[in-house]
Write a structure and sequence with these properties.
single chain, 82 residues, mainly alpha, 0% strand
């Protein structure tokens, strides 16, 4: 039995369009993000300027809830040990 695809809701369409608008020609993927998330978190906590590579991590985090969850958990751990 084949199921019919459900149409997207207006909020789903709006989120899709938001994500497309934020897309860049070259972006960090989840693997790259997770490789650099420790350095990113440390620099964010200390207020250190981010280089281009870490700015791509910041951009990825604005789009990826899974990596953002990892970042938030790491940030809590780092904050607890300051």
């Amino acid at each position: 039995m084949t199921t019919k695809a459900q149409p997207l809701t207006p909020p789903q369409v709006a989120e899709f369009l938001r994500q497309v608008a934020l897309t860049r020609d070259q972006e960090a993927d989840c693997g790259t993000c997770l490789q650099h998330i420790g350095e990113f978190a440390e620099k964010k906590l200390t207020g250190t300027e981010l280089d281009a590579a870490l700015l791509s991590i910041e951009h990825h985090l604005s789009l990826c809830p899974e990596c953002t969850e990892e970042y938030e958990a790491l940030k809590k751990i780092l904050e607890a040990h300051q």
